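Following up on my earlier thread - several people asked me to post the actual chain instead of describing it. Fair enough. Here it is, all 412 residues.
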Amino acid sequence: MIAILKSYKKHCALVLGFFLCTSLLAIDFGITIGNDTSFKNWPEKTVEQFNNVDVWLSEKFTPTVRFYLSANGAFSFSKTIDTDTPPVSVLIPDLGLSYLSGVQALGNAGALEWSVGRISFYDESRLLTTGLADGVVLKWYNGKVQLGTSCYFTGLLVKDNATVSMSAQDEVDAVDDNVVFATKRVVYQLVAGVSQAILNQDIKLQLTGQNDLNTGSTEKFDSYYATVLLSGNPLPLTSYELGFSASLQKEERVDLKSGLLGFSNLTMYLPFKSSILKWDTVYSAPVDKNDTNGFKPVSTTTVSTVMPSIRLGQIMYSALDFSMQATRSLNMGLKASTFFRTVDKNTAISFIDNNSDSYYVGSEGLVFLSWEAFPELALGANAGLFIPNSTVAVPDIDPLLYQVSVLVHFKF
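Reply from S.P.:
Thanks for posting it. Predicted structure:
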């Protein structure tokens, strides 16, 4: 009993010391606790729960230099309802978003923006790279001209927090309990952009590459991408993006392969309850129709809420998304999507029967809402329904697939 009391006093002293130090140094800090509970009926009726805790602190060393540090822990749980299969649970501790960033004025030469640490890495289209990685980003602005370069390493992330999976070996490691960290890859980007370059429209050119650094792997997979992106505001209260990417993919003992990605977005800002209407269309396909990889982005990009196996590579989809701010604290919306495969043999989608000749995969509807009940408490919910094309789906699939999720986030 005495030992327990001593341990309790020690922990209280540590907590009190932490709060005292951060108060004296004027460091902002906080804790975010989240819970996401979902129920789905494919491939089996399953209840899934994801709980996470994120502890962060932030300090501005100067008006233009900021330090941010976060650590997070997550616990996931899943249980199949109609079977005796034991539940699966995973504990995921990791370093979260943590970086040093700043802006340096260069006089008539513009300004330099930089970040180093564990940062969000993404490309201009948000379709090639997303997630967290360790690296450095440099961006230079001068008038209408922007130049940027970045380099990231993915191998220090805990694998459950990683978004990069390129090779068959990466997929094997993802389910191997003896493998803790993510695939070791270096990802680099070079971006050049000019605002109001053509008929007052913005244009950006981007080169992206990733190289496999995994030692001992017999299936190394490297890939390279070139992207062109146009964007602008052609009419009042509207904006658009139009882009194209081409890829080269090199795998050991396999011929060089290539893929294509086209994407467009049209957004309208309606003067009713801050409403936004978006129309997105994305096309991805291999140049060689016998290529089972298709266009393979660096990050795994899921485009369906109910059916996460529908990913970029051999898929085309079109989505209409409407959202509105019903009240100051309540947001709600609807989304409808339609999916097509772009090759005859699409082995990436789990429910596809490749003996079918139909290209139409199915359609999805999604309803979502979020409510900030208090400044410290946010609640959310979404319900999705997917209707697969019966002529292309495997025989045992349900005619209606659904997923319902409830989210709770508490911060202080």
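The longest strand covers residues 46-62. That should answer part of your original question.
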